[in-house]
């Protein structure tokens, strides 16, 4: 299990089968403790980002109201005929310039966000979450009540998150992009999982159904990777010797 050391964790770290409890002091696996600290860093970073986003949500309506008037101002000034110049009021130019200066100086610039990168990040988080969920699935069979309660609480809350985020629908949509047959096989495996009474035979049936989905999923990905593009474009270029050189685009 790796090097073990003593840590006071106030009951946060469960017994993983090796660690032992003594009051509020546990023997904690060093690698797990390092991972916990990393998760703490991630938690703080995401919480700070979301807090700033909430500020942006509050600011957005104010900026939107100002932008509606700015859009109207721009259109009016861009379309203003020469004959209207005689009606310019004193101080109008200064008022417009002061208004523009305020917003250009006080409106903070926002970072460019890569949606594809964040989408990849959610996939990474789902993978790590599933790994911890799997650990809890094993720990729930532990004899000590404190371990059972920790695992039970974690399993229930994680499944609630999955339902709130509609992860089942997300998976079905992703599989459907590859093959409708994959969706059908996946749904059949899920039905077996929920209908089962967790006997050894039924667990084997569910596992077999899920393995079938995974194997066919990998097959679809390989077939997609090996499939040539539908259209190939070539660019012809004349060389000094009169030959035609083709470049594949």
As a percent range, the share of strand residues is 5-15%
Indicate the radius of gyration in whole angstroms.
Answer: 30 Å
Write the H/E string, N to C. EEEHHHHHHHEE
**What can be said about the biggest beta sheet?**
3 strands, antiparallel
The chain-level mean pLDDT equals 81
General form: elongated
- Give me the number of helical elements: 7
Count every beta strand, where a strand is a DSSP E run of 2 or more residues. 5
Alpha-beta classification: mainly alpha
Spatially, the strands of the biggest sheet line up as 1-3-2
Spans of at least 5 consecutive residues whose pLDDT stays below 50 are: 1-27
Distance between the termini: 52 Å
Helix fraction, binned, reads 55-70%
Give structural notes:
This protein has 249 residues and is mainly alpha-helical. Among the domains are: 4-36, no CATH class; 121-165; 167-228. Helix content is 66%, strand content 9%. The chain has seven helices and five strands, in the order E-E-E-H-H-H-H-H-H-H-E-E. It has helices at 30-79, 92-106, 115-139, 145-164, 167-178, 180-195, 200-226; strands spanning 4-8, 21-22, 25-29, 234-238, 244-248. The strands form two sheets. It has a three-stranded antiparallel β-sheet with strand order 1-3-2. Helix 3 (115-139) runs antiparallel to helix 4 and helix 6 runs antiparallel to helix 7 (200-226). The chain is elongated. It starts with a strand and ends with a strand.
